[in-house]
Amino acid sequence: MRLPRMLAFGASTLVLLSACSTGGSSTAPSSAPSSAASSAPSAGASVPASPIGAGAPTIKVGSDGFYEAKLMAEIYAEALEAQGFTVDRTGIGIGARKVSAPALESGQIDLKPEYIGSGLAFYEPGKQTGDPAANRTALQTVLDGKGGGITVLDFSPAVDTNAFVVRKETADALKLTKLSDVAPVQDQLKWGLATDCPTNPVCAKALKDAYGLAPKNVTPLAACDQPMVDALAGKTVDVGELCSTQPDIIKNGWVTLADDKSTQPADNIAPLVRNDYLSKVADKSGFEKILNDVSAKMTTDELLKLNSQFVFDKKDLAVIAKAWLQANGFVQ
User: pLDDT by residue (tens digit) across 125-136?
Assistant: First the structure.
């Protein structure tokens, strides 16, 4: 739902749900996975004769609220089901990082896909970097003390990060190619920023410290979901905070302003899994291999294609996930 009210950039706002790398999205899209609250295996999941998941407790899979995070959670869930695990999807789309992170720490969910650079920034602002391996190591150190311990598994080649986007006519008129170009004209622009931007270290603080950006005409919106796209397309806003893997950017010919001062972290995707769940799986290394193998196959180009199927082809996330897993040999 679009929020029409405007507010000063630094004003406190009710933290709803926000961008992919800033912590989630708005309310779940109407075409969320049909199996989102189900424990039943997805159709087509091929359970081997002696599955790794035999005898393992049900795994509670969760995610942030925006569609890409829910898609990744569904992909991991179906890959596990194919190996005999029973999956509870109640937590898929549970909410922004301010909701999903405590849910994982408390054991409300056992597994969630995480954008590791922004995940690190959530816990230790300022430690995030452009190096995914460094982000993973630092995030693991932080999570070692959370909720009895959480393991960061391998991260994907796919990377999705915050993207500050303008329409081409805006870029041409104001000669905007990078964020450094925006400061002199920031008050001429209407901004659409993530609902958690005022408190998010890779949004408001990063923009102000690095670029001197403190816009006044701001509409808070779900950054990696349809409301921000609609606002930018409808000219309700001139600058929109999207995710770099949103296919709308390419389709509409929009211009992503270069983050020329490198404020945004490397947001490769990795599953986070509670250690107390891992301790209950007979073949822990086999369990981790299922997820790591899936992550290894997910590239940025693949993620763009899958997102396009959801946004433009209106396919169900569970259907998209199953087809991708079949194409990559994870399910029959």
Answer: 999 999 999 999
Strand order across the beta sheet in which 218-221 lies: 218-221, 191-194, 239-243, 162-166, 255-256
Q: Would you state the structure tokens that stand for residue 171, as one six-digit string?
A: 């870029």
**Comparing C-alpha atoms, which of 178, 195, 162 is closest to residue 266?**
162
Residue type, 63: S
Q: pLDDT tens, 36-75?
A: 344 444 544 555 656 899 999 999 999 999 999 999 999 9
* CB contact at 8 A, 179 and 262: no
290 strand-pairing partners = none
Residue 140 to residue 323: CA distance in whole angstroms: 32
d(CA 88, CA 84): 13
Class of domain 162-256: alpha beta
Between CA 177 and CA 184, with CA 179 as vertex, the angle to 5 degrees is 95
> 148 vs 14, 56, 91, 141, CA distance in Å?
30, 19, 19, 13
Does an H or E element contain 165, and which?
strand 162-166
Q: In the beta sheet, which residues pair with residue 239?
A: 166, 191
Give the predicted TM-score (pTM) of the model: 0.83
Is the CB of residue 95 less than 8 Å from the CB of residue 64?
Answer: yes
Q: In degrees rounded to 5, what are phi and psi of residue 88?
A: -100, 115
Measure the N-to-C terminal CA separation of the chain; round to a whole number of Å. 38
The reply to whether 59-159+266-327 and 162-256 are identical in fold is yes
Helices (H), the chain: 67-81, 97-106, 116-123, 132-143, 168-174, 204-211, 226-233, 248-252, 275-278, 284-297, 300-311, 317-327
Q: Which two tokens stand for residue 278?
A: 């891992």
User: 59-159+266-327: which CATH topology?
Assistant: D-Maltodextrin-Binding Protein; domain 2 (3.40.190)
Please report, for the chain, the start and end positions of each structural domain, with discontinuous segments joined by +.
59-159+266-327, 162-256
Tell me what the pLDDT averaged over the chain comes to.
87
